[in-house]
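In this supplementary section we document a worked example of the pipeline. Step one takes a protein sequence of length 210 as its only input; no multiple sequence alignment statistics are reported here. Step two produces a three-dimensional model, which step three serialises into structure tokens for compact storage. The input and output of this example are shown verbatim.
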Amino acid sequence: MEHNKTYHSLELNSKTPPFIVEGPITKEQFVRYEMDEGLIAFRQPDKQREALKNVLELPESRLIIARDHQTIVGYSIFLYPDEIERWSEANLSNLLELGAIEVSAKYRGYGIAKHLLKVAMADDAMEDYIIITTEYYWHWDLRGAGLSIWEYRDIMQKVMNVGGLECYATDDPEICSHPANCLMARIGERVDAESIHEFNRIRFKYKYMF
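The serialised model returned by step three reads:
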């Protein structure tokens, strides 16, 4: 499908410091900015910057950033599921995964993650997609947040709810391996019934097994 993208931005002047949340941004826009040193959830900031730059080469990718002047302090990235994941088996051109959402530790407490999702979903093109995220407790920064697994899960779900994502049942073994793990999804208003049926099929691959 054609990947239409409409840029949106949000200026949070009431925050200290002030932030700009914007996107989807292009590779040309992205390379103008630096990564905050606290963005280390997946890899070191310089390596994560290179990884995001490469992802922006993909036509379906949608990168939303939060920045403090010229420094990226948070981001969310949407793209097709990795080919090794079950979610790619449906081969749906209108299914995107929230591959990562991260906010630098020293910038937490300002609601940046929620605003990243608000800006992402402000694009009307998102009504053409099924958006999913797979949440695993071992990816969560429990120590940095000072929260229990269940406290973190509750906050994470509330953040995702801002973007319209809700919990969906699945028999995926990794998600079923711990009760805190979950699949969340948002089905756009213009997604066709056939795509929804296929999404439901891959959510439950083993329903006929005994």
